[in-house]
Amino acid sequence: MSSAERLVLTDVNDGVLYVTINRAEKRNALSRATLAALRETFAGAAHDVTLHAVVLTGAGERSFAAGGDLREFDALRSEADARALFDHAAATLDAIRAMPVPVIAALNGTALGGGAELAMACDYRLAAAHAAIGFVQATLAITTGFSGAADLFALLGTSRAMRVMAAAQALEPREACALGLIDEVCDEAQPLGERVARFVAPFVERPPHVVRAIKQLANAHRRAAVQAMRDAERDAFAATWTAPEHWALAQKFLDRRRPEAPGASA
């Protein structure tokens, strides 16, 4: 098994591709290698005309994705480094957005920072009863670093999206569902897989070419909004990432988590 295959696991069942971020010991933190593995997985799956849908989740029950791997990203100090990181992560989210069939994020745990951005790149978000989602980047004095603000603003509108980013809170699933960030929440003790299977059923019941045609319309609608914000979002991230306030807070976070090394919320 290659390193990429170890970071991201895949399985196909009844025309649905299941993609699992496989870093449970790091709370499925999104390192550059993990982002690259996800991009490779989705780019390859885009050519499979037999698929009806994709389900993206994380290993274990603790985290969908804890965010960007801040311990790894700590070495990226220049504005050029920040822009390169943004472009690297955005390319992964773009591969998910461009997937020619619906992509469902199955939130098996917390989706924070970059993990929330990853979930927002999917077409739908379903959550376990104990899950949470949060655009918590502001707690590290930065803005979105993976291009996820475009999805957030498109879904919630300008005013609500700004407030969500400024509040920087991990939202319980039912609160997030009421806000519009999550589509469905499992009942207590209901398996997430059961809820996901029920949700994807309408897509599985249609011929793959019909599902792809429907997704083509969705992608055409979404693409313009994402591209319109790309330069502004990259600039905002680079400016906040290189500011001294960010590094002071990042150091406090890293000091607090030693020797454990989960992902943070870049």
UniProtKB/TrEMBL annotation:
Top-level enzyme category: lyase
Molecular functions (GO terms): methyl/ethyl malonyl-CoA decarboxylase activity
Reaction catalysis annotation: (S)-methylmalonyl-CoA + H(+) = propanoyl-CoA + CO2; (2R)-ethylmalonyl-CoA + H(+) = butanoyl-CoA + CO2; (2S)-ethylmalonyl-CoA + H(+) = butanoyl-CoA + CO2
Coiled coil: none
Subcellular location: Cytoplasm, Cytosol
E.C. number(s) listed in UniProt: 4.1.1.94
Function recorded in the entry: Decarboxylates ethylmalonyl-CoA, a potentially toxic metabolite, to form butyryl-CoA, suggesting it might be involved in metabolite proofreading. Acts preferentially on (S)-ethylmalonyl-CoA but also has some activity on the (R)-isomer. Also has methylmalonyl-CoA decarboxylase activity at lower level.
Protein's recorded name: Ethylmalonyl-CoA decarboxylase
